[in-house]
Amino acid sequence: MLELAPIGFIQTQIVNKFDAPHQPDGSQGLRSVIELLPKRDFHKSLEDLEGFEYIWLVWWFHKNSTWRPKVRPPRGDGVKRGLFATRSPHRPNPIAITAVRLINVSGLRLTIGDCDLIDGTPILDIKPYIPKVDSFPTAKIGWLAEVEEFYDQEPSFEVAFSSLAQEQKDWLEGQGVSFFQRALKILERDPTPNRTRRISKFDEIFRMGCAEWRVFFSVEDNKVEIKYFRAGFPKEKLLAPGAEVIVNRDVQLAFYETFLNQDSDK
Question: Model pTM greater than 0.85?
């Protein structure tokens, strides 16, 4: 029987999967902390690690419980691909690896740079990153080669905000909500309906799910106009018993109070 147990947990500023970057490149300059579990001699296991600039984290997709043999990646032409030819987080055994910059080791705490792990993710193992054996920059990348070529080009769509959307965006940013940069990157590249990107169409309006928020927009030729934002949960659900665990619950309730024209049936 196979048994796995976390060696520790990570503390990050990422609270939901939508905000987690795909393959972080270090450009955000964020800091996260891995706290290893006490009373297991892990302080000895960390000896000599501080000399490495990068480390591999082996971790568990603790929010995922299902998988499919073929998936539709968020980037690309919408074609379903074999699961093992993708980086989908939904896997038979939801194990992941991420290379991160190691900044500091202090006791049982490791400070690292940008990562794609949400807060509270269980860490299964830590290994040193060795460029000579871990990096193959000229390796072929299969179907992703065409996708990478597409993303190397300038964005295909121009995104603008309606006056209402701009007002809502400014208000939300004032409340510490910060999904906009990620949403803009998606819409600039491909605003067409896609289940993985959580984009769907209702008559002439499109909707995209961004964690606990919804973006409604129109598309005409190569122009995208964001019409308005909505809270992701109906007000009655936010007020129901036990709703305190919903991320950004208080902000969503305040959003309803601030923008009274925002109904919850879309």
Answer: no
